[in-house]
Each structure stands twice: as C-alpha cells, then as structure tokens.
Amino acid sequence: MAKRLSFAIAALSWLDSAIGIFHTIPRLDPSQFQPQDFITRDVCIIGGGSAGTYAAIRLRQMNQSVILVEKEDHLGGHVNTYNDPIEKTAIDYGVLFYEDLPLVRDYFAHFGIALEKVSVQNSNVTQIRVDLRTGTTVSPAESNSSLALAAYSTQLLKYPFLNTGFNLPTPVPLDLLLPFGEFVKKYSLEGAVDIIASFNQGVGDILQQLTLYMMKYFSLDVLQGSFNGFLQPVSHNNSELYGAARNELGGDVLLSSTVISTHRDEEGQWVYALAETPSGNTLIRAKRLIIAVQPRLDMLQGIDLDETERGLLGKFNNTCYYTALARIPGIPQGVQYLNRANDTLYQLPPMPAVYVINRTRSPNLFSILYGSEDHMTEEEVKGNMTQSVLQLRDTGVPVEAPEFVGYSDHSPFMLTVPADEIGNGFYQRLNDLQGYRNTYYISASFNTHDSGQIWSFIDNLLTERWGTL
C-alpha cells in the first residue's frame, strides 16, 4: 500500500508540472494509479457559491454522485453574514433577497428553511439622498417613475429569450446593443433610471453598459419584486441555506481547497482534476466537469484550456463590486443614505463610488456598498468608504469614522463583451462550450447576478440538456 501511494504521489507531481505547460499536456494514463488513489464521481464541480452549491444538490437529487471543490472555508459565494455578538443576531451584507419564484421556495423548503415576504419599500426607513463627494444634499429625481417603469416593462416583454441564459436570436436586436443611456432616451425611460440604478449595483456606469446587460440584471422578475416584495429567510440569515447544504453534502465537499490542474481526455470518458486540500493533494476522476466560478482567464488558472476556450473566454471584461459592514457612531437609526450627485446626468454618482449606506437589523451596524470599473485594493476601498462616510458631517450628522467588522470583494463581478462581439455571435459560441470537452459552465456570467435566476438557468441545463449532451 505504501509503495502504491508513493508511486501515486510521484505521478501527481508529474501531472502537476506537465499540465502547467500550455498546449503540451501529455495524456494522463489512468493505469498509473490504483483505484483507491482516486476520488471517483459522476461530476466534479469547481466553486461552491450560489451556482455550484445548487448544482451539487440538484445533481444528487438526480442520482448523480458529485464532489464540490471550494477555495473558501464555507459555501455561499456572494452571501456574506456577520454574527453580531452585541445584538446576538445575524446580519447579511452580501446577498439579501430572492424573487418570489416557485423554484426558490422549493429550494429553501428542501432544507426546511422558512421564508417570508419582505418589501424593499420599507416605510420605516428614511432615505436621504446626498452627494458623498461634497456632503451636499440632493433633491429627489423629478420624474414620473411609475410611467417610466411601465414603459420599461413593455420593452422587457419584447425579449422573452432574456429570461434564462443568453439565447440570443440572429441577428441580435440592435436595441439590446445600444448603450443603456441611449436606450433610455430613445424610449423616454428617464424616470426609471434612478430606481434601476438602485438595483443594478456593481455594474459600473449603467448608462455606458449595453442595454442587454441592464435588462438581464433589472429583469421582469426583479421589477415585479420591487413592487410586490421579495423573499428572505425568516431567520434573516442567508448563510443558513449554505450551512444546510454543507451538512447535506457532507464528505462530497472539499473546503479550503483549490483545483490546481485538470486534464480532460477528449477521446475518453473521464475528466481529471488535481485538488490541493488541507490534507494534501487529491486526484479527482469524474465523467463531467462543472465550472461554477467566473470564467475569466485569471480565475481559471490550472484548467487545461485549449485555443477555442481561451480565445473565447479571454474576450470578457468585468466590473468590480465590494461590500462592507461597519459600526458608524453618530448615524441616526432607521436612515439610509443614497449616494447621488448634483452635477451629473440623472444624478448618478461617478465611479468609483459608494452606492448606499444602509441600516441593518442591528442599530449599530451599517452596510456599505461600493463599485468601481477597475479593481481596487481593500485598503483603497475602505479608505474611500471612510471618506464618503465622513462627508456626512457636512449635512449636520455628527458621524465618526467607520469601524469595519466585515468586508468582501465580489470582483470580478459582471462580465461583459463589446457590442460588436455580441453582434458577431459571441454568446452563440459561448453556449456551444456547454458540454465541450465534457465541461459545463454555470456561473452568473451565463445568465445574471441573481441567485434565483442562476438556479433557474442550472435547472434548465440539467433537466433539459444534461442527458443529451
């Protein structure tokens, strides 16, 4: 047994070095390994965020065996929860709400987690609009938002193919390739911009982003939720879902682990992944590989991408998004500060900027949401957050510098490509990657940054296409 393990370790070292050479990856001969040296599963999933966790649970329901590899010490991705030791309560400062969809209710019900309907139009919250560059107050937008949102929904209804995935027709409708600012002017949607901006956080300059991406993010389901309410666990703790999933998956999860190399045999039935885990390197053998992380090249280091994959995925650009939780002495309770500007179109704050300083369930804690087009360090983001908070002094609020108790960098956030790439069939070619080299992609970039919509996309992939690919 010791001799076989020594041989396996030597072979793993060879595999690790060989796969690091792009385009010269030798074929891995499974006969070099003893069966007990593998973790063998039907599916290997890289990434334990919203997409990867849901896929693991659904695949097990479909009698597929899985192994889920997650770099963090917990599941959940963009879900960030802080357990306040003072108030003895959980505070979410990442994902907050979910659309009221049957699929969402079924997923939570699977774990016995009770949900409740909540309104984002909370009458107990006083919203103050302020320019956080100068500390000056900003008057409400002068427009009829109801009529504009009705007109926007009319536009959404023209494109039902946007509901799940990027299944775009040929040719792609030209309106979807307009910068959103031009689209707004074309259809007199000015009154909807302020509300859309409040939801489309983390996407950079919304007026310059393509209408396609803005419609995917502020979808019909989100629009309906803004009026009718969203779902939230009764516990107000979104990490409860991922704790329950972790318990159910048990040994099928490798936490604090990273896939450092893969080998996908195009002529064979197996995909191999070498995972670095707290207990050492583990070789995984699976029939299919699911990539549930953002498909940027720098996020896929170690994956044996070929020229087709690398050429396509290398076209992505991205925005950056950050969330923080802080104690901010001096801010009155029940107040939300929305960052707006007095000297910009539609009063939108120039990037990089704080989006909102929001009250939480704890009277002493506030969440701060921040966006940028280029990546920033934690020190830079916190420094800019602090400066923005202190500008509130000029509004008469005796605020002190924030004491950060939680921080998360959600970058790379929204992945985009230019209009000419989309018009030339980028998303058709991207969709063709599903099943290519026994590999599937399920991150937000294949649908949108919305848990319910991601789960719907995965359900569609697994139930309608999985058996035929």
Automatic annotation (TrEMBL):
UniProt cross-references to PANTHER family, sorted A to Z: FMN REDUCTASE LOT6, PUTATIVE (AFU_ORTHOLOGUE AFUA_7G06600)-RELATED, PROTOPORPHYRINOGEN OXIDASE
Q: What is this protein called?
A: Amine oxidase, flavin-containing superfamily
- Return one GO MF term: oxidoreductase activity
Quote the InterPro entries the UniProt record gives. FAD/NAD-bd_sf, Zeta_carotene_desat/Oxidored
Source lineage: Eukaryota, Fungi, Dikarya, Ascomycota, Pezizomycotina
Q: Which residues form the signal peptide?
A: 1-20
Keyword NAD in the entry? The reply is no
Domain of life, per UniProt, equals Eukaryota
The entry's keywords: Signal
Query: Organism, per UniProt?
Result: Petromyces alliaceus (Aspergillus alliaceus)
Q: Does the keyword Phosphoprotein apply?
A: no
